[in-house]
Amino acid sequence: MRYRRAIGFEIWHFQPLCTKWPRANFQEAVAKPRSEQACDECMARKHNRALSGASGRKKGRVAGGLVSLCGQLQAALTRRLAQVAKLARQLRPR
Question: Exposed site from 23, 50, 88, 94, fewest CB < 10 Å?
Fold first, then answer.
C-alpha cells in the first residue's frame, strides 16, 4: 500500500480515490508511517470497503449513481413544468 501526504502537511492518505489524495508535490511511503495522522476520508473508505466487499462496493456505487441521476431528472422536470405552467398562464385569453 502507498501512503502519500502533501509537502508541508501532516495528514497521510492511503486511498487513491480519496478526494484529497495528493497528485503533485507529495511525499510517498510504502510502509505505514508511524505516529502520523491518517486522513479521515481514507479511513472511512477503508471501513466502508471492509463492510461491503468488492461486489457491494460496485452495487453501492451504481445505486448511488442512480439515486443521484433520479434526483437530477426530478429537478430538471420540476423546472421544466414550472416553465410550461408560466407560459400557459401567459397564453391564457383574458
Answer: 94
Give the global pTM.
0.52
Torsion angles phi and psi, residue 84, rounded to 5: -65, -45
Domain boundaries, the chain: 3-91
Query: Cell numbers of 47, please?
Result: 471501513
Segments of the chain assigned E as strands: 3-6, 11-12, 26-29, 37-38
C-alpha cell of 51? Answer: 463492510
pLDDT in tens, 48-80: 876 665 555 555 565 666 666 677 777 778 888
Beta carbons of 41 and 18 less than 8 angstroms apart: yes
- Among 37, 39, 33, residue whose Cα is nearest residue 20: 39
Residue with cell 486511498: 15
- Ordered DSSP codes for 58-70: HHHHHHHHHHHHH
